[in-house]
Specification:
Blueprint lengths: L2 H8 L1 E2 L2 E4 L2 E2 H8 L4 E4 L1 H14 L5 E5 L6 H8 L4 E4 L2 H9 L7 E3 L6 H10 L2 E4 L2 H14 L4 E7 L9 E2 L9 E2 L3 H8 L5 E6 L3 E2 L4 H18 L9 E3 L17 H19 L4 E6 L1 H4 L3 E13 L2 E6 L7 H4 L12 E3 L9 E6 L8 E8 L7 E4 L21 E4 L1
Parallel strand pairs: 4-22, 5-6, 5-15, 6-7, 7-8, 8-9, 9-11, 9-12, 12-14, 14-15, 17-19
Antiparallel strand pairs: 1-2, 2-3, 4-16, 10-13, 16-17, 16-21, 18-21, 19-20
Helix pairs in contact: 6-7, 9-10
Length: 408
C-alpha cells in the first residue's frame, strides 16, 4: 500500500492529516512535544467491527496485548473483545485492571517463573503450558494455594507456516510442547490437580497470504482434534492462533480477510461445532487489531545536504521505531509508509532521506523517498505504528526522553 492510501484511511482536514478527528498540528500542540505515538480509536473500533462482521459468531476474539500494552488501548479493547492474552506479570496486572473476568485472560510465553505462575493461578487466569517444568510449577502453585489451576497446552505443531514474518511453530522451538509429546503430558496432567481446558497453537505471525493462513488453521484443527482424544475431559478451549498481517511496504497487499473468514466458517460449522460442542474457538490477534490505527509523529529539526543528498533530521528515530529502521541492520530494510503530516495535500516532488537524532547510520526512517518539500518544524508521520512500536524498541539507547502516547 502507498502512503496516500494510509492518509485516506485517517482522513485530512485543511491539507493536514487527521488523527482522532483532530488536525495533526493541533494534536501536536495539545501534546506539547514531539515525538509521540497517536492511536485513533475510531479506526480501532472499525477494525473490531470488521472482524466481528466477517468471522463466525462462535469464534471468540482475543487481543494479544504484547502488540501494544498501553493501558488506555487495553482498557478500550477490554470492552470490545472476548479475551486478552498476556505474556508477563506486568501485562497480567494491566489486563486485570480493566475489570475483565480473570478466566477470560490467558498467559502464554516460554520462561514463566514460579512467582508469575503463582500470581496467575491465584487470579484464576488460564496458564498456557509451554513445558513440563511449567506444568509442575502450576501444579505446585495450585497445591500451595488450595486452588485448581486452569490450563491449556500450547502445542508446537509438526508443520510450519510459510510466508510468516516469524515462524513460531514447526521444527525445534522454544514455544510450546512438541505435538508428539502432548499425549504423555496430558496423561501426567490428568493425575494432577489441574483443569485442562484445551489447546493453543500459534504457528506464525505477520502473514498476508489468506490461503496460507487458512491451510494453517485447517491443519491446526486436524492436529488438535487428534490430541483431544487424550484430554482427561472435554475440549473447551481451542486457540487457533492468529498471524494476520498488515501491509508495511508498497509491495505489500492487504490480507484478504473474507477468504480467511470463509475458511473459518467451514471449519467451525463442519468440524469444531459438531465434534466439540463445548469448545470455544479463539482467534488471537495483536498487530491486526491495533497496528493500522497508530501513527508515529516526529518533527523536522534540521534539513541538510551532503554531497548532493538531502537529509531531513528529526527529533525521533530508531530508539522508538526499531522495526521501521530495519532492526539494527539485521533485516532487508524497506521504507514504511511515511508522509509530511501537515502537508499531505501538497505535491510530492522532493527526494530526501529521513534520519533520526541518534549517533548511528542505522537511524534511518525513510531512505531516498519522495515527499512534499519539508522544512524545519514540519511533522513527519510514519503509518502502521499501532503495534510493536514503542515497547518493541530500544528506548534507553542514548538516553533521549520517552515519547508520549495518546489514544484519541
Amino acid at each position: 500500500m502507498r502512503p496516500h492510501e494510509h492518509v485516506a484511511r485517517f482522513g485530512t482536514i485543511d491539507g493536514e492529516l487527521r488523527v482522532g478527528g483532530m488536525p495533526l498540528s493541533r494534536l501536536a500542540a495539545r501534546i506539547g512535544s514531539t515525538p509521540f505515538f497517536a492511536y485513533d480509536r475510531v479506526l480501532l473500533d472499525a477494525r473490531v467491527a470488521q472482524l466481528r462482521a466477517a468471522l463466525p459468531s462462535k469464534v471468540e476474539l482475543s487481543f494479544a496485548m504484547k502488540a501494544n500494552p498501553m493501558p488506555a488501548i487495553v482498557q478500550h479493547l477490554a470492552g470490545k473483545v472476548d479475551r486478552i492474552d498476556v505474556a508477563s506479570a506486568m501485562e497480567m496486572h494491566t489486563a486485570l485492571d480493566t475489570g475483565i473476568r480473570p478466566d477470560r485472560v490467558s498467559f502464554a510465553g516460554p520462561g514463566k517463573i514460579a512467582a508469575e505462575i503463582r500470581q496467575a493461578v491465584a487470579a484464576g487466569i488460564i496458564v498456557e503450558i509451554e513445558s513440563t517444568t511449567e506444568l509442575a510449577r502450576v501444579e505446585a502453585a495450585g497445591r500451595s494455594l488450595g486452588l485448581t489451576p486452569t490450563i491449556a497446552i500450547r502445542v508446537n505443531p509438526d508443520f510450519a507456516v510459510k510466508g510468516s514474518g516469524m515462524r513460531m511453530g514447526g521444527g525445534p522451538q522454544q514455544f510450546g510442547i512438541d505435538a508428539e509429546q502432548v499425549p504423555q503430558v496430558l496423561q501426567a496432567a490428568s493425575k494432577m490437580g489441574v483443569d485442562v481446558l484445551g489447546f493453543h497453537v500459534f504457528a506464525g505471525s505477520q502473514n498476508l497470504n489468506a490461503e496460507i493462513i487458512a491451510e494453517a488453521q485447517r491443519r491446526t484443527v486436524d492436529l488438535t482434534s487428534e490430541l483431544a482424544e487424550h484430554l482427561p475431559g472435554e475440549l473447551r478451549y481451542l486457540n487457533l492462533g492468529g498471524g494476520f498481517g498488515i501491509p508495511y511496504t508498497e509491495k505489500d497487499q492487504p490480507l484478504d480477510l473474507d477468504a480467511v473468514a470463509e475458511n473459518l466458517h467451514a471449519l467451525v460449522d463442519d468440524v469444531i461445532a459438531p465434534r466439540f460442542p463445548h469448545a470455544s474457538p479463539v482467534i488471537e490477534l495483536g498487530r491486526y487489531l491495533v497496528g493500522e490505527c497508530g501513527v508515529y509523529v516526529t518533527q523536522v529539526v534540521d534539513r541538510k545536504t551532503s554531497r548532493g543528498k538531502t537529509f531531513l533530521v528529526v527529533d525521533g528515530g530508531m530508539h522508538h521505531q526499531l522495526a521501521a529502521s530495519g532492526n539494527f541492520g539485521q533485516a532487508i530494510r524497506r521504507n514504511y509508509p511515511l508522509a509530511v503530516g501537515n502537508r499531505v495535500a501538497e505535491t510530492a516532488d522532493d527526494g530526501v532521506s529521513v534520519v533520526g537524532c541518534l549517533c548511528t547510520p542505522l537511524d534511518l526512517l525513510g531512505d531516498d523517498i519522495t515527499l512534499p518539500p519539508a522544512v524545519i518544524d514540519d511533522l513527519i508521520v510514519i503509518f502502521q505504528q499501532g503495534a510493536y512500536g514503542l515497547t518493541a524498541s530500544p528506548t534507553a539507547f542514548l538516553g533521549h526522553p520517552a515519547p508520549a502516547e495518546v489514544l484519541v
